[in-house]
Design a protein that fits this description.
This protein is mainly β. The strands form 2 sheets. Strands 2, 4, 5, 6 and 8 form a 5-stranded antiparallel sheet that branches. A hairpin with a 7-residue loop joins strand 4 and strand 5. The N terminus is likely disordered.
Length: 112
């Protein structure tokens, strides 16, 4: 006899994570690029640098009023490459800034 369940597996499996593109395609982020995070407690920051660059990562808990550099920052590239950084801070906004004009692609994906 089959067992009945009250499972919500299909709802959970179908729950997509939000993705936000800070900078796509890769471009100069030396002026800083900001994204509103919303009600997210953890996310992964994906970076692709087209050459040597140092990228700072900052968070704002109060709608861009104050900014704080993350412990994971700076992220340094000695040459072209990729980085994926898991970040678990409660914030409203994230800002990434390149210390030179090397093109960088930056994307966020919520961890659910």
């Amino acid at each position: 006899m089959p067992l009945g369940t009250n499972s919500r597996v299909s709802e959970i499996a179908g729950r997509g994570s939000d993705e936000d593109s800070l900078q796509v395609p890769a471009d100069d982020i030396s002026g800083g690029v900001v994204a509103e995070i919303g009600n997210v407690s953890a996310f992964t920051l994906y970076l692709h640098a087209e050459g040597a660059v140092t990228v700072t990562v900052e968070f704002s808990p109060d709608d861009s009023e104050n900014w704080y550099e993350a412990d994971e920052s700076p992220i340094e590239f000695s040459e072209a490459g990729d980085s994926a950084t898991n970040i678990a801070y409660k914030m409203t906004h994230v800002r990434v800034t390149g210390l030179n004009s090397t093109p960088v692609r930056a994307q966020l994906r919520e961890v659910v």
